Amino acid sequence: MKYLSLRKILKYPVGGNLFSEDLETMLLIDWDGVSQMVNEIMDVNHTLDRPRVKSWLESDNFDINEDLFATLYSFVNFYAQKIGTKPDIEARRGMYRAGVPRLSDIIGLKAAQCVEISALAQLYLQEAGMDSSLFTGEVLWKKKHEFGEMHTFIPLKFEGKEYIFDPANSHRTSISDESAMLLPRIQVVQNFRERVGRDRKTYVDTRSVFNSEPVWYGVGDQSNVTPDDFV
After folding, report:
1. Closest-CA residue to 140 (of 203, 223, 228)
2. 186: which strand partners?
3. Could you point out which of 49, 170, 179, 205 has its C-alpha 20 to 30 Å from the C-alpha of 195?
4. Over the range 53-79, which residues count as b (16 or more CB within 10 Å of their CB) and which as e?
5. DSSP structural state of residue 134
6. How far is Cα 102 from Cα 92, in angstroms, rounded to an integer?
7. What Å distances lie between residue 167 and 75, 97, 112, 178, CA to CA?
8. First to last CA, the chain
9. What distance in Å separates the CA atoms of residue 228 and residue 3, rounded to the nearest whole number?
């Protein structure tokens, strides 16, 4: 499990699990290489009309602050439009085999997966002043699944509420018969930092702010999920 801010991190470990972290595989967080993109996302965020965002959220009874939604929405839509949602997995593997890749290089080659996408998102959220951290653990999409998936995501706090922002797993939903929009995956969670295990497997329940879809985020060792692992 890795639960870090990137404010003073130059290299971020990729992979590993609760009991055995792979510290040899590293990602270089090169702020200079991605700062322009972060600033461009900030510009998009600043242009969003907050009253219109709030009106839309209220019209569909989505219980989320318009500033938080706009901030996360700006990231996932900018990334999807500029980089895309189909990473070059072979290119990514080659970069890690060759040494310690730069975040900017992986992003530039359109090869980013959850670790790199979340790292970029965390840098952006730090610039936006969000109380957020980068977390590498596991995700369980269905409670009946036998195994969790290694995954990197972002726990955050906003106005006294807690959320999981999963920038690598946005979803497209129709808002009318003619159009659709890409929504950030924002899951409501309670006391994640206190509930997640420090020395044992733990899956914490979360609910989507848009459709109440449950997803379990936490830490594990890639072994079978048992009922005792849910908190």
Report:
1. 203
2. 165
3. 170
4. bbeebeeeebebebbbbbbbbbbbbbb
5. E
6. 11
7. 8, 25, 11, 25
8. 17
9. 23
For residue 144, give both structure tokens.
């009946």
CA-CA distance, 43 to 119, in Å (whole number)?
19
Cβ atoms < 10 Å from Cβ of 33: 15
Task: Give the 3-state secondary structure of 38-96.
Answer: HHHHHHHHHHCCHHHHHHHHHHCCCCCCHHHHHHHHHHHHHHHHHCCCCCCHHHHHHHH
pLDDT at 121 over 70: yes
Calculate mean pLDDT across residues 37-64: 96
Calpha distance 92→51 (Å, rounded): 40
If you average pLDDT over residues 163-178, what whole number do you get?
Answer: 78
Tokens of 41: 């996302």
Amino acid identity of residue 101, one-letter, is P
Q: What CA–CA distance (Å, rounded) separates 119 from 159? A: 23
For the chain, where are the alpha helices, taking DSSP H only? 31-47, 50-59, 66-82, 89-97, 103-108, 114-127, 192-195
Q: What is the pLDDT of residues 184-229, one digit of tens each?
A: 999 999 999 899 877 788 999 999 999 999 999 999 888 899 888 8
Give dist(CA 152, CA 113) in Å, integer. Answer: 9
Place of tokens 């569909």: 60
List the structure tokens of 208: 């989507």
